[in-house]
């Protein structure tokens, strides 16, 4: 028959008992604050993005290559999109890190998964930032069959 009382090595400290904290930055606290701040900023950025793309102008019918090329020609929209990209990827990776820390039991597996998350997020951030800031709609235009694109690039 089993007993419900835990042994001495399984005792859980009282909820308000003093905790010994390591010196240095509290990364969990910084991550928690980042999630709240980036979440608020992402709501503003995403709804602004959706409003401009879907409500202004021709709506969804107006979104085509020329629309994207026009937006990426503006430094304002470049910064807007890169900020949204960075915040969303770091926010998502931090959320996944929290899930991994909560549910993965093995320390080595946890460490490998967290590293994989940050490497993937870093790769996507670098790749997305390069796409936004180096986007050239005239690249390969000589093979295009679109008249407006040929005319626009010839004028440059």
Describe the protein.
This protein is mainly alpha-helical and 156 residues long. The chain has one domain (27-155): Up-down Bundle (3 helical TM bundles of succinate and fumarate reductases). Helices cover 66% and strands 0% of the residues. It has 5 helices and no strands. The chain is elongated and about 75 Å long. The N and C termini lie far apart (85 Å). The mean pLDDT is 84.
Write the layout of secondary structure elements.
Elements: H1 27-55, H2 65-72, H3 75-103, H4 107-134, H5 147-155
Helix pairs in contact: 1-3, 3-4
Transmembrane segments: 31-52, 72-91, 112-135
Protein name: Succinate dehydrogenase/Fumarate reductase transmembrane subunit
Subcellular location: Membrane
The gyration radius over C-alpha positions equals 24 Å
Q: CATH class, anyone?
A: Mainly Alpha
Order of helices and strands: HHHHH
Give the oligomeric state of the chains in this entry, treating copies of one chain as homo and distinct chains as hetero: single chain
Count of beta strands:
0
The helix-and-strand class reads: mainly alpha
Largest sheet: none
Secondary structure tally, helices: 5
Q: What is the third-level CATH name, the topology?
A: 3 helical TM bundles of succinate and fumarate reductases
State the CATH superfamily name: Fumarate reductase/succinate dehydrogenase, transmembrane subunit
